[in-house]
Amino acid sequence: MKTLRIEEPGPLTTVQDAGRFGFQDRGVPVSGAMDRAALELGNQLLGNDPGAAAVEIFSGGFRARFLAEVSFAVTGYDPQVELNGFSVPPWTLHAARPGDVISIDAGGLGVWHYLCLSGGIDVPVVLGSRSTYLRGRFGGLEGRALRRGDVLKTGPKVVDNLSGHIPEGFRPAYVPQPAVQVVLGPQTEAFPPEAFDAFLGAPYEVTHRSDRMGMMLDGPRIRHCRTPDIVSEGLAFGAIQVPGEGLPFVLLADRPTTGGYAKIATVLSCDLPLLVQTAPGRSVRFHAIDLLSAREIHLKRAYKIRRFFHLLRQGGSKTHDD
Prior knowledge:
- The protein is of the alpha+beta class.
- It has 4 helices and 20 strands.
- The protein has helices at residues 36-46, 193-201, 272-276, 291-313; strands at 2-8, 12-16, 54-58, 62-66, 70-76, 79-83, 86-88, 94-96, 101-106, 112-117, 151-153, 179-184, 204-210, 214-218, 229-234, 239-241, 249-251, 258-261, 263-267, 283-288.
- The two termini are 39 Å apart.
């Protein structure tokens, strides 16, 4: 069903889902949403599969016209949303009618926003995913960023008569300059003790040398024991490489499949939204925890989210931050 016509795409708008898994051994990056929590929560609010495709909007400037009746939700860090010129709250389910116009601007804090539609965005599946990989020119809509005049279709509605919103306690704990939790390693032996003191002891500024592939940081330089080079190995979302110049580089959604620089740490999956939503010019600090604690944090958050949506679907009122 033709559902949305793009009138202004903004600086960078693409179709993204949870990612393209199972092909890294053949050199195909995962891609997918930069802020995966925002994507998944918005989809779940609509009754979609958590990883369904949505419109990912970088830094606002987006406007589109609805061509059919559809439910929608806008998520991310501080999006400013208007429907027919009237402000509507993000992280909330809304209904649109044919002819309605939605605009989404950045509020000056976060940079990535998601327009999730009931039924999900229906573009061709390429290697198991609808995500756009811009460097490879495949996925999404013709492998490119959205343009003025593009029309997006949606799949069949999954759930009827939905309502509700996602309280702040169930969203990522966005702040302008976050403290991000990491697990040290895997190449801890590549760095002397003072390298970890530098990495954890002072903030790093997010530079403009950042995009969907990775985030370059500026701050205390990190020394290697001998060389920054290792035998190339697979890269995870949130892995923090330290090239020869000694400045950390965080691998993000469109990261390469392998890399040959030593990695000092990996960001916890639940804290990746905080990191990717940190705008250039703002700073981030890193706090190390052990792997067991990281797993506990992940499982507790996953249970909390599952319980919230279970209660919401049951029509229960106990969806506060307990």
